[in-house]
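Quiz preparation item.
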């Protein structure tokens, strides 16, 4: 019985070890599956790293190309801007010359127009003054004639009055002489 017990015990231990081995087999198969997945991930990561490296190289190459193109465009833009500036300066000079020429011409035309206006105004003023002098002269002649007429009339009136006065004085003298004589 002791051997039987030992045998039972050994069987039990073997059964326990079988359970543990089964459990270990399951864990081992899960580890194997995980290892396969990790290997697959490693392969995929390596592939992705290579593709990323290629992409980085391509991006660097493109960046260098873009940088070169940007430099070229910058130079082209600077040349274009310089051309525009010189063209604008030339255009501004031409415009200034044209404006100055037109200003000179207009100034000359304005001066001529002003001279013409001044001459016409001067003639008009001279004519007006001349007409006014003629009117003044005519008015003076009229006033002189009127004064002469008035003076003649007054002289004639005074003459008659003086004659009458002389007659009256003579009459008074004669009367007074006559009155003395009487």
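Solution:
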């Amino acid at each position: 019985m002791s051997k039987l017990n030992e045998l039972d015990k050994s069987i039990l231990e073997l059964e326990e070890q079988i359970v543990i081995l089964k459990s270990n087999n399951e864990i081992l198969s899960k580890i194997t599956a995980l290892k396969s997945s990790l290997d697959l991930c490693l392969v995929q990561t390596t592939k992705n790293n290579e593709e990323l490296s290629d992409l980085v190289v391509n991006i660097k190459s493109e960046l260098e190309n873009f940088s070169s193109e940007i430099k070229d465009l910058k130079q082209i833009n600077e040349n274009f801007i310089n051309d525009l500036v010189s063209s604008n300066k030339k255009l501004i000079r031409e415009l200034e010359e044209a404006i100055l020429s037109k200003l000179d011409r207009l100034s000359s035309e304005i001066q001529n127009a002003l001279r013409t206006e001044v001459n016409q105004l001067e003639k008009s003023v001279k004519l007006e003054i001349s007409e006014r002098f003629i009117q003044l002269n005519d008015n003076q002649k009229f006033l002189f004639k009127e004064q002469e007429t008035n003076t003649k009339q007054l002289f004639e009136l005074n003459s008659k009055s003086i004659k009458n006065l002389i007659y009256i004085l003579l009459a008074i003298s004669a009367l007074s002489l006559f009155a003395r004589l009487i």
